[in-house]
Amino acid sequence: MAFKVEVSESRCSYLHVGDIVSFFAEGSGTSVSGFISTLGLVDDRVVVKPDEGDLDNPPAKFRDSLFKIVPMHRYSAQEQFRKATATARSMPDVVILQKLQAAADQERSRSDEETTKQMGTPVLYHNTVIQLVHVKSNKYLTVQKRLPALVERRAMRISLDNQGSEAAWFILTPVYKLRSPGDSVVIGDKVILMPVNAQQPFHVSEYSLPDHPNCKEVNAGECSSWKISLFMDNKEDNPEVLKGGDVVRLFHSEQEKFLTCDKHEGSLRVFLRTSGRIKRTDATSSKAMWEVEVVNHDPCRSGAGHWNNLYRFKHLATGHYLAAEVDHDSTLDPVRQKLKGQMDTVYHLTVDDNNTETWLTIFELEATTIQQTDQTVPKNSYVRLRHVRTKSWVHATSIPIDKDAEKPVMHKVGAAPTREDKEAFALMAVPPQEVRDLDFANDAAKAIKTIATKIESGQQATANEKKYIIRLIEDLIFFVIGKETSQSTQRPSALTEEGEPDRDRQKLVREQEVLKEIFHLLRIPLKVQPTFQMADLADKRYDAMHYLFCLCYRVIQHSQSNYRKNQEEIANKYLSLMQSQIGFEVRAEDTIAALVRNNSKLLEKHIHKKEIQTFVDLLRKSREKKFLTYIGDLCVSKGMAIQRVQAMVCEVVLKDSNADVLMTLSVENEEIVLHWTEMGVAHSKSQMQLADGAKTGNEDDTKNLDYFTAQLQLFCNMCFNRQYLAILKIKEMLPIDIVLQCTENKALPFSLRAGFSHIMQCVHLDINPQETVNPVGYSRLWSQIPDSTTSVSEYSPWLETGMSGSSFMHEVGAALVSSKGSSGTSLECQMPPDEDDAPMSPTNTEGSDDVLRDPAQCRREKFKQTKHKEAEKARILKTMEFVEQYLALPSVWSFEDKEQNLLTYEVMMTSSSMT
């Protein structure tokens, strides 16, 4: 098979719309030379890096310097819509906004159509207005004529913008007079980049950026010339064809594993990663992305890949190239023994280092079907890899790299002179947005590490660096929840913005060590003491640092939400650090509570009396109800009681020294009074006074009622699943008659009545001598339906059936009351264990039944059971009457009230417990 190296045709070709190019400043003497580049996806500044490559040796991150030529887009309607939304009042004119949005969308679609229509048309000097789209970030190169440059203040600022505007319109003018207006722009010409609106040419400054000494600012002011280098012709930019710059995953079709590069024992290793997923192709990782390079005589040129081209594969996350070297591992492998033939030398895949020759990183692709050598490579084809220098074919092995692991998942990739048909890889294209997500996470981790290391070394961060890192952490929050904002839109508060975290991005921030660097930032106060301590964050001088810490914990909280692997990594590596920062109002306690919530494994492993007491101390200090909720969440995980943690919570919360954090009830003059302690001062107030005060908007009364409601929920979680350490004490604190009286009291808030109803179930009903019986269920409560959208406040089935809320609940209540003992979970009375009734020994129970027992003893036991049943029925008789009355009266239902929905739900659960 004959192979070729792609020959550049840039010397005789013209520039067209759709071409991907780079711009190189050829300085002479003291002038600056280098490509127009960027600082990654975490910074919108445009720079030139003189020390990082030239036309003969492009930069390692050449993607930062690539721009696509697109025709001029229109922006008038989009600008009007942006201005209207930015200046809209609290009650904007919806009709006008809808019309403006429709016009903006129509304008955007017309621009896209125009781009497609003009693709491939020549670019003319002076006449063709173009825009430059940064390939890596998909942002527009823009001149902000109202903002001064950061270094040369007399010049205009140039940056990247998400949405584009008329400030992103440019024309190309020739440097030399041999080109005239209207001539086609020739690849390799020196040109001047002239903004249409600003009318100030692009200029590369001789001054460095203060925070990046190796970067020279690009602004609009004086004139600099730029040489155009073609990276890819628009004709080759076919989405169905493998091209230079494409990012792929290499999936071994036989082993069903991805070719991956990751650190193991401090060094980078290349391997096939085993996945536990049912569908192996779903086991995507950011560490399995490889950028394709088509080898060309012109190092700045790439193009479409053909079967007879040479290729290099760059690991996207680390920047290292795939290579092969001699393997000195003597571990026997049947595949390797079969394919190595008579040769003693065996090879394995690795990545290059600084001393690796370029030839060691070059591969050939062979098709698995009959193909002509000059045909292009389809993007999603199967290929075999052949290493050019060693003339060996890549193959899988069963040799584990992580030999010490219980279940090895990293298997070495070998290379042998004999080709095996089944050793083929599927080229799986990675979507551009996924590549940008990886770039952003990777760049963010490096930026955070740079600033954290500087502060850690004792240097003072500049004001610009503080603003930059705060902005970056805010961007990370929006990134994880999928709500990125552009520069031209108003940013919501990063600390309060809610959203469903994107699972792939949660995985990214872990794999690309963003979380590791965030904890590096949080660890700074512990390392620079006594210069700076956590307590200093309360000082106004450190407001920026305090806000930064809150943002960091917000990122952590979103990153672990409903993601088990992230939760385990954070808990195993950083929980002690987070615990040391509890109580300084940086959201450490909120994050820990969210981390262990509904994760029984973490609760069992990491929660001890010390952590529970810490929450109690915070509760005593702030009297915020959220800490009651956090403590309650420790007791239960996904509807199951964590008995070990539950017992510790009972022991800590109910001990005498912590009695001041709990509110207590008493009956005085036939009125229920609440007692509590705040700042060492005892307070008391009747429930009715608190309820009346809350209705009139008294903040203190509202806060106290909410606090007591949260305390009731804590008690329920402590008693859940018959935890008698709590039940025996709470039953004394909240007798059944008081609980029933509060549940019936219509003057109390619905949420508080619902709390008492829940207490009735957990403390007084679901206990001995009751026994849970689960008959065949022909129906189920809607709360048992595994639907994330189902909630007490949103459930309204009559909206579909046409029934009114009152008639619907009347029928449900009547059905529940009339069906006692016929369906649902029931609590049957049985005799409690007495000291006199010791269990029978195993020898006495073998083969025994009621026929062999003493008839007199059977009669005595039956009499006891009947007596206990009657006593139990008398004890809960009033509760049964209340439930029947509540569910049977149609006049009480108002399903527009969400809090009443909660009460109704608890009453129905109480009814279910007694049926």
TrEMBL record:
Q: Which GO terms describe its biological process?
A: release of sequestered calcium ion into cytosol
Q: Where is this region: Disordered?
A: 819-855
Give the location in the cell: Endoplasmic reticulum membrane
Q: Please provide, alphabetically and separated by semicolons, the GO molecular function terms listed in this UniProt record.
A: calcium ion binding; inositol 1,4,5 trisphosphate binding; inositol 1,4,5-trisphosphate-gated calcium channel activity; phosphatidylinositol binding
> Domain MIR: where?
239-295
> Which CDD domains does the record associate with it?
beta-trefoil_MIR_ITPR
> Has the keyword Membrane been applied to this entry?
yes
What Pfam families does this protein's entry cite?
Ins145_P3_rec (PF08709), MIR (PF02815), RYDR_ITPR (PF01365)
Instruction: Write out the entry's keywords from A to Z.
Output: Calcium, Calcium channel, Calcium transport, Endoplasmic reticulum, Ion channel, Ion transport, Ligand-gated ion channel, Membrane, Receptor, Repeat, Transport
Q: How does it sit in the membrane?
A: Multi-pass membrane protein
Q: Record keywords: Transmembrane included?
A: no
Q: What's in the GO CC field?
A: endoplasmic reticulum membrane; plasma membrane; secretory granule membrane
Cross-referenced SUPFAM superfamilies: IP3 receptor type 1 binding core, domain 2, MIR domain
Q: Where is the composition biased (Polar residues)?
A: 819-828
Q: Per the annotation, which location comes first and is thus the protein's main one?
A: endoplasmic reticulum
Described purpose of this protein according to its UniProt entry? Receptor for inositol 1,4,5-trisphosphate, a second messenger that mediates the release of intracellular calcium.
Q: Which family does it belong to?
A: Belongs to the InsP3 receptor family.
On assembly, the entry states: Homotetramer.
Anything noted about its domains? The receptor contains a calcium channel in its C-terminal extremity. Its large N-terminal cytoplasmic region has the ligand-binding site in the N-terminus and modulatory sites in the middle portion immediately upstream of the channel region.
Q: What is this protein called?
A: Inositol 1,4,5-trisphosphate receptor
